[in-house]
Amino acid sequence: MEFFIQILIAAVAMGTPLLFATLGGVISERAGVINLGMEGLMLVGALVAFVVMLYTGNYFYAVAAAAFASGIVSMIHGVVCLMLRASQIASGLALTFFGTGLSGLFGDKLMGETVEPLSRIPIPGLHTIPVLGPVLFNQDVIVYFSYLCVALSWWLLFKTRIGLNIRSIGEAPEVCDSLGLSVLSYRFFAVVGGGMLIGIGGAYFPLALTPFWVDGITAGRGWIAVALVIFAFWDPLKALGGAYLFGLALALELRLQILGIDMSPYFLKMLPYVLTILVLTLVTIRNNRRGIQVMPAALGKVFFRGEKH
Amino acid sequence: MRKLISIIISTTLTMLLVGGSAWAAKPSVGFIYVGPVGDGGWTHAHDLGRKALEEAGHKTYFVESVPEGSSEGQILKIARKSDIIFTTSFGFMDPTLKVSKKFPDKVFLHCSGFKQSKNMGNYFGRMYQAKYLAAIIAGGMSKKGRIGIVGSQPIPEIIRHINAITLGAQQSNPNIEVEVLWINSWFDPAKESDAAQALIDNGADVIVTMADSPATVQTSKKNGVYAIGNDTDMAIYGKEAHLTAAVWNWDVYYLAAVKAVENGTWKSSADWWGLDSGIVGLTSFHPDVPQSLIVQMNREKGRILSGTMDVFDHGFTKRDGTRVTKALNDGEMLGMMYYVKGIISKIPSG
């Protein structure tokens, strides 16, 4: 039982950076903008969080600075693919290269520095619940903040006028434009807001998981998040389940070995991606039968104001 | 037009990361790295060797984080501007061989592989000797009698190191148990840390890592257990935990190899340098390590240095109980795909 709980605790820890990045991706893509720059944005967030933590020793400043910095860098994506109307795919990929290079360049002098990792704070009352207590309510503040972000982004997208506008713009920007909504401003803020969440996902590495800086500290988690956005069907609540499921896959890869269960490492490594393809295929087949379209209809498409298509 | 601008922006950003400049009189040297130079481990160790060449007056180039699967283009690019090219990961072997045929007047040296041509050689160090010595310390420092190893990729090189660690630890604690967890990656700090945690949760009190980042040292510090560093000195990441590290001193080899090419004495060969050359070694010890343990380690070190003993030359028992009585030759060591007795984990079937 103890072993089982430890697996779940590890799954939440591994899933948390994925969760933030996926939420960021969901918000951006709900407005119709693909962001393939997640890995780069996470690295920028991780670096800035580490530097601020090193010099101020304040977790709040570190997280805020990571969000701010990633927000600024995602503005590049906003400007290039919204205002200059370039390909979102190319711009996103460039952002990944840029973020990776930038963090490597400025991180060069930080080798050997370490910070104190976040400690766990049990929530009174809740942390004594069997299984769920130690897994979900005996975590660090960033994990608690991630629960809040899931709830807030779900509420924002599905329960507010702003959310309705964002989703509509992701579906039919021309219609929204004719109704007087500023497609570009909404999209720009969705990209920047999403970028800030992605940056916090990166910040979780040096603040909690691995409290030092090495180049490429996120080791490709940004790409898993790209797949997770699709896996979660652009829904913050499903993002929560998806991120923890992927976190569980990462944690299981190690724990299955302890149990002596012999599974091909290649199989375990491809599991998250196979799951994504499988779920996507199954749900798409089901939705097509029922005539439901889940993917934002205008996702990835360049918006030309007042022009015919 | 706007598309064009965005393409220009994207390419410029990419170019910025690659960089490069003019030629020099001494032979110029190019490096292909599998990880980032700031990984604090394997690639960092190679890059220290590159910096030693720079200090010796050579113009050097490098590309970092080159994926093993698609490295040919990068090797080609580096080969165009360098006289000597070092490719520093096993997976670069075939692409290096291919590119070496296009530049017959340049010298290619591939780390950790076995394929050669007229202008391509191999080089490596007998890291297993340093791991064996470090493990004597690890075995002696484990109170629970259990060492946890964070494995990277399950290839013969790493399996050889794990076996050497087990045999070394048995020198100071004959009943030591060794548990291995594979992360199936060379570099993934979060996973390395999680693996160390899982091993500690399962009873290990000395953690040895085969992966490239210092994450395990840090996790060991957090849990109040000891750790052995990998490839570079990782003490700065947790001196409370860091017993010692088995490290690479690539400058020893790089300076010698480049000198040989410069003097025209270089011939294609497979160099596997040992502890005596200085290419591998240990860093300074944790203050907790008792003098008696260091003396014991030094005795074994002396035997390896004098050539009277090597790790796999005096018989051992495999995990399945079969006994190996004769000394292994280099080929057998390079193809090692079994565990020795004392390792409680099963070898992955992959």
UniProtKB/TrEMBL annotation, chain A:
GO CC annotations, alphabetized: plasma membrane
Keyword Transmembrane belongs to the record: yes
GO MF annotation: an example: transmembrane transporter activity
Mode of membrane association: Multi-pass membrane protein
Keywords: Cell membrane, Membrane, Transmembrane, Transmembrane helix
Ranges that cross the membrane: 6-26, 33-53, 59-82, 89-107, 141-158, 188-207, 213-234, 241-260, 266-285
Signal peptide: none
Compartments, as annotated in UniProt: Cell membrane
Name of this protein: ABC transporter permease
UniProtKB/TrEMBL annotation, chain B:
Gene3D superfamilies for this protein: 3.40.50.2300
One annotated Gene Ontology cellular component of this protein: plasma membrane
Ranges where the ABC transporter substrate-binding protein PnrA-like domain occurs: 27-294
Residues making up the signal peptide according to the UniProt record: 1-24
Entry-linked CDD domains: PBP1_BMP-like
SUPFAM superfamilies membership: Periplasmic binding protein-like I (SSF53822)
Protein name as it appears in the record: BMP family ABC transporter substrate-binding protein
Lineage: Bacteria, Deltaproteobacteria, SAR324 cluster
